[in-house]
Design a protein that fits this description.
Number of helices: 6
Distance between the termini: 37 Å
Oligomer: single chain
Shape: globular
Strand order of the largest sheet: 2-1-3-4-5
Order of helices and strands: EHEHHEHEHEH
Strand content: 15-25%
Structural class: alpha/beta
Radius of gyration: 16 Å
C-alpha cells in the first residue's frame, strides 16, 4: 500500500508534526506501507493565472503543467492521500489554494474515484474544522471516494506536542482511514434523474 503525504503548509510546523504522528500510527498497523512525501513549498509552483486553458483545451496545455502533472501522477499512483494543511486565518494556506486552483478543471472532469484522503489541520486558535471541510469539499469534487478529517486545536505557535487526547483521536481516525484503504471498498453513488 502506498500513501502520498502532501504538505500544503509553507513549513514543517504543528500540522506536519501531527502528520508525522499519523504516519507513525499507521506504521504500527502495517509496517509495509510506503509513504511518499510532497512538500508544496519546495516545488515553486507559479500562481495559477486563471487562464482557463485547462478547462477549454485540457490540463496538459496549462502553462504550469510541468509542475502539476507530476503531482497528479503521484496521486493516481497511490492508494490514499494524507493532506497536511495548516489553518491560516480560517482557510487553507496560499500554497494549498494555489495547488487546488491549478486543478480546478477536475470539478468538471473528476477522475480520482478510487482515492480516499485524510485531511489534517491544526490551528493555534479556531477554524481547523473549516479548513478540513473546505478541502474535503474540493477533493469530493475531484472524485475522491471518501475524505476523513482530523482538525486539531493545538493552541501553540510552532511548539505543538500532541496531547494524549489528540493522539487517541489521531489513532482512531488513522486506523479508520487505513482500514478503509485496505478494504478497497468504495462508496457507490446512486444517481437519480
Amino acid at each position: 500500500m502506498k500513501i502520498l503525504m502532501i504538505n500544503g503548509s509553507p513549513h514543517k510546523g504543528n500540522t506536519w508534526r501531527l502528520t508525522d504522528k499519523v504516519k507513525e500510527l499507521i506504521g504500527t498497523l502495517d509496517n509495509t506501507v510506503i509513504f511518499v512525501e510532497i512538500h508544496l513549498s519546495e516545488l515553486n509552483i507559479p500562481f495559477c493565472t486563471g487562464c482557463s486553458v485547462c478547462f477549454r483545451r485540457g490540463h496538459i496545455f496549462c502553462p504550469h503543467n510541468q509542475y502539476i502533472q507530476p503531482i497528479m501522477d503521484k496521486i493516481a499512483g497511490c492508494d490514499g492521500i494524507i493532506f497536511a494543511v495548516s489553518c491560516f486565518q480560517g482557510a487553507v494556506p496560499a500554497l494549498t489554494k494555489n495547488f487546488t486552483d491549478h486543478l480546478a478543471f477536475l470539478l468538471h472532469r473528476p477522475r480520482y474515484f478510487d482515492k480516499k484522503a485524510l485531511i489534517i489541520s491544526t490551528t493555534g486558535g479556531i477554524s481547523a474544522n473549516s479548513v478540513t471541510q473546505s478541502l474535503a469539499s474540493t477533493l469530493s469534487g475531484w472524485g475522491f471516494n471518501k475524505c476523513y478529517q482530523l482538525p486539531i486545536v493545538a493552541l501553540s505557535w510552532n511548539d505543538y506536542k500532541p496531547s494524549e487526547k489528540h493522539i487517541k483521536k489521531a489513532y482512531k481516525i488513522s486506523k479508520t482511514f487505513y482500514m478503509d484503504l485496505k478494504s478497497k471498498n468504495f462508496i457507490l453513488l446512486k444517481l437519480e434523474f
